[in-house]
Amino acid sequence: MKTKIALLSFFFSLSLYSFSQEKSKFSRQLDAVLETFDQRSTDPLKPFLATGYTINGIPVGYEQAVLEQALPQIPKFSAYTVTKTVKEKAGTRLYVSFKHTGEPFACNFLIDPKGKIRELNILEDAVIQQQ
């Protein structure tokens, strides 16, 4: 019985270690996203965006314009938590929960093997007001 508990503890610790390594592997990209929300500017994010990146639900070619309109309407965040990572053919998808005074703000990002963000899906939970 003690052996089973020890093995379970070992595998649980190993899975937590692997998850924290994935988080730190992409911390530069996620910190840039957090800074983008804070500054209301895409400048911190530009070095990490892949050529031809997409935003779910936005027609191709309109990403930059939509970001510039959406950023002032998205709350500033104090921190983020990676809730899930999934290996995909084109890279690693990160599911992230950003924290602010209200409800958590869920996003997901597809990061390619070169560390570039191919999908910047920040508008899943956003309520964008048209002017």
What does this protein structure show overall?
- The chain has 131 residues and is α+β, with helices and mostly antiparallel strands.
- The chain has a single domain, classed as Nuclear Transport Factor 2, Chain: A, CATH 3.10.450.
- 34% of the residues lie in helices and 28% in strands.
- The chain has three helices and five strands, in the order ααβαββββ.
- The chain has helices at residues 2-25, 27-39, 63-70; strands at 49-54, 79-88, 91-99, 105-111, 117-121.
- A five-stranded mixed sheet has the order 1-5-4-3-2, with helices on one face.
- A hairpin with a 2-residue loop joins strand 2 and strand 3 (91-99).
- The longest helix is centred in the first third of the chain and has 24 residues, at 2-25.
- It is globular and about 35 Å long.
- The N and C termini lie far apart (64 Å).
- Mean pLDDT is 81; it is low at 6-21 and 126-131.
Topology readout:
Layout: H1 2-25, H2 27-39, E1 49-54, H3 63-70, E2 79-88, E3 91-99, E4 105-111, E5 117-121
- Strand line-up across the major sheet: 1-5-4-3-2
Q: What's the end-to-end separation, in Å?
A: 64 Å
**What is the β-strand count?**
5
| Helix content estimate | 25-40%
How would you sum up the major sheet? 5 strands, mixed
Spans of at least 5 consecutive residues whose pLDDT stays below 50 are 6-21, 126-131
| CATH level 1 name | Alpha Beta
The overall pLDDT average reads 81
| Secondary-structure element pattern, one letter each | HHEHEEEE
As a percent range, the share of strand residues is 25-35%
